Amino acid sequence: MLPLPESPRRLAPFLWLLWFAFVLRVAAQMLVAFQHVSWLPPMEAWMSGLMPYPYLLPSQFVIIFVLAKVSLDFSRGRGWFLHSRPRFARGALIFGWIYFASMIVRYGVRMTMQPEERWFGGTIPIFFHFVLSTFIILFGLWHRKHLGEKTA
After folding, report:
1. Which pLDDT tens digit goes with each residue over 44-65?
2. What is the pLDDT of residue 44?
């Protein structure tokens, strides 16, 4: 079990770091898509192929906004995302661990099916799914630890 801080403010820098990593990913992908920069991997490396980019980009902005709101609540030590609700906390934690585990499986399948790309070929989407799932897991673990406590 990860040692989690008592204060949400002490967890906030880790949440902001994960948020920032995801923002950089979205910004880099936008540079490739719209500015056609050659010093970053090509567009195919950024995409998993499950969602076309015109739909993916707005959903990434929604994710950025939600993660920023969560991180802001943790930084301030108050807000909607600090109120522990048993089903919400449990759901976030279960979802986070399933999400994380599915990326481990996805990585294994990709490396099995495309051994020429070992170890890092095609892993940009997988890595950033690990970033997002880690954010969710930290959020869920903090809430599980603080269930029943009143937060400001």
Report:
1. 888 877 788 999 999 999 999 9
2. 85
Domain boundary assignment for the chain: 8-145
Please tell me the distance from the alpha carbon of residue 137 to that of residue 52, in angstroms, as a whole number. Answer: 27
CA nearest neighbour of 29 among 45, 15, 16, 11: 45
Q: 4, 146 in Cβ contact below 8 A?
A: no
The DSSP code for 147 is T
Where helices occur in the chain by DSSP H, the ranges are 8-30, 43-46, 53-76, 86-113, 124-145
120, pLDDT greater than 80: no
What pLDDT band is residue 5 in, cutting at 50, 70 and 90? Answer: low
Q: Is 142 exposed, middle or buried (0-12, 13-18, 19+ CB in 10 A)?
A: buried
What is the percentage of the chain residues whose pLDDT exceeds 90?
53
CA angle 132, 106, 65 (to 5 degrees): 20
Rounded CA separation 39/89 (Å): 41
CA distance 109 to 94: 22
